[in-house]
Amino acid sequence: MAAIRRHGGCVVDPLSASISDRLRADRPPQRLLVVSSQPCKTIKYLSGLGLGVAAVGVEWLDDCLKHGSLLDPKSYRLPAGYDGGRRFFLRKGASMAPLPARERALHGCRVHAGGDVVFVREMELLLMMSGATICKDLQSDPPPPLLFFFFPFW
C-alpha cells in the first residue's frame, strides 16, 4: 500500500460509506481498481464489482513498479464472478472507471438489510456500492417499488 501512495495513488482502506459518497460527487475518480491476490468474496472485492470496476491481480502493481509506469490492467484482470451454467469466469464489463450510479445493478432498488450489526453494516455498504438505496426503517420509509431482505446464512 505504501508503494501505491508513494506513486500518487489512493488506497481505500478501510472501505466505508465515504467512498460511496465520493463516487456520487460531481467528479468521481476516473481510475479505480480493486487489487487482490485472487478472486474472493470479501466486501471490498464484491463492492468493486458492484461499482463496475475491474479487479486486477497484485502482479499488475509489481509490473507497474518494475516498468516505472502505469500499465494497461486488461491482461491482469481477475474474474468478476462465475457462470455455473456455462462453467467459466466472467471478466467482461469491468473498466477502470466506476459505472455511473444509474448503470449499477441495483440502481432504483430500495433495500433493507437485516441481521447482526456487522453483517448489516457490510451488506448495506455493498448494496450502496451496487446502486441501491438503503431503507433503515421499514415503518417510516415509503413503500419501495422493490424490496430485498438479506439475512446472514453463514
From TrEMBL:
Gene Ontology biological process terms from the UniProt entry: DNA damage checkpoint signaling; positive regulation of transcription by RNA polymerase II
GO MF, one example: histone binding
Organism: Hemiselmis andersenii
PANTHER family attached to this UniProt entry: TP53-BINDING PROTEIN 1, TUMOR SUPPRESSOR P53-BINDING PROTEIN 1
BRCT domain ranges (all copies): 1-78
InterPro entries on file: BRCT_dom, BRCT_dom_sf, TP53BP1-like
A single cellular component GO annotation: nucleus
Protein name (record): BRCT domain-containing protein
